[in-house]
Design goal:
Layout lengths: L16 H13 L7 E5 L2 E6 L4 E6 L12
Antiparallel strand pairs: 1-2, 2-3
C-alpha cells in the first residue's frame, strides 16, 4: 500500500463490522479492481467508487463528542 501523498499525519478510524461488510460489497461489485480510496471527513468514512467517480458513505462508528446532545 502506498500513500497518495506523503505526510506525517495519522488518521485513526473506528470501524464496525457493518462498515467493513459495506466496503467488501463495493469490492465485489468492481470486478477486477482491487484498490479503493478511502477518506475520513466530517467524522464519516467514505469510499470513492472508481466506476462512478462518486463517494459512497460507509458510515460512522460512533457519534463524535460534539453530537453527544443527540443521544
Amino acid at each position: 500500500m502506498f500513500p497518495i501523498t506523503e505526510s506525517n499525519n495519522v488518521a485513526k478510524v473506528e470501524i464496525t463490522r457493518d462498515m467493513l461488510e459495506a466496503i467488501l460489497l463495493i469490492f465485489a461489485s468492481l470486478g477486477d479492481i482491487c484498490i479503493l480510496e478511502i477518506e475520513v471527513r466530517h467524522n464519516g468514512l467514505f469510499v470513492l467508487n472508481p466506476l462512478t467517480g462518486k463517494y459512497e458513505v460507509i458510515g460512522l462508528a460512533s457519534m463524535p463528542p460534539s453530537m453527544n446532545h443527540l443521544s
